[in-house]
Amino acid sequence: MLNVKAGNLAIQIKSVAGNEGIIVEVVKFLGDGIQYINGQPWGYYGAENLWYIRNTRPVKSRLGKMVIDGAVPDAWLRPVSGLPDVDEEETERDNEKEKENV
Q1: % of the chain at pLDDT higher than 90
Q2: Dihedral sign from CA coordinates of 56, 90, 51, 76
Q3: β-strands 23-31, 50-60 pairing
Q4: Which of 94, 91, 51 is closest to 71 using CA atoms?
Q5: SS (H, E, C) the chain
Q6: pTM for this one?
Q7: What's the CA angle centered on 72, arms 57 and 61, to 5 degrees?
Q8: Which residues contact 92 (CB under 8 A, 6 or more apart)?
Q9: CB 27 within 8 A of CB 54
C-alpha cells in the first residue's frame, strides 16, 4: 500500500540532499526506477514506487542543483493530515443542516 496519493500535500521524511521536513505537493505516480517526463529522466535506479513532486520553494537536488520538482520514493513521504478534505467539510455541514431541520 502506498503512503500518499496524487493531490496530497506530504512531508518528506528522508532525503539524500538534506531536504527532510519539507512540505511537497504529490503530483503524479511514476512507478519504479527511472521514468521520463518531457524527455527528462526522473528517479533512482532500483527505487520503487516513485512520485513526481513539486516543492513550494527551490531545494537542493541530490546533484546539488536548486530545483522545484523531482522524483521521491513513496517510502520517503508521509501525508500531511489535520485538514479535512473539502468534500468531508461539505458533508459535515449538510449533515448538521439536516439535523437542524428535523
Answers
A1: 37
A2: positive
A3: antiparallel
A4: 51
A5: CCCCCCCCEEEECCCCCCCCCCEEEEEEEEECCCEEECCEEECCCCCCCEEEEEEEEEEECCCCCEEEEEEEEHHHEEECCCCCCHHHHHHHHHHHHHHHHC
A6: 0.70
A7: 50
A8: 84
A9: yes
Domain spans of the chain?
Answer: 9-101
Q: Give tens-digit pLDDT for 9-39.
A: 999 999 888 899 999 999 999 888 776 766 7
Label residue 95 by pLDDT band (50, 70, 90). Answer: low
Q: List Cβ neighbours of 84 (8 Å cut-off, separation of 6 or more).
A: 92
Q: What pLDDT is stored for residue 37 in this prediction?
A: 65
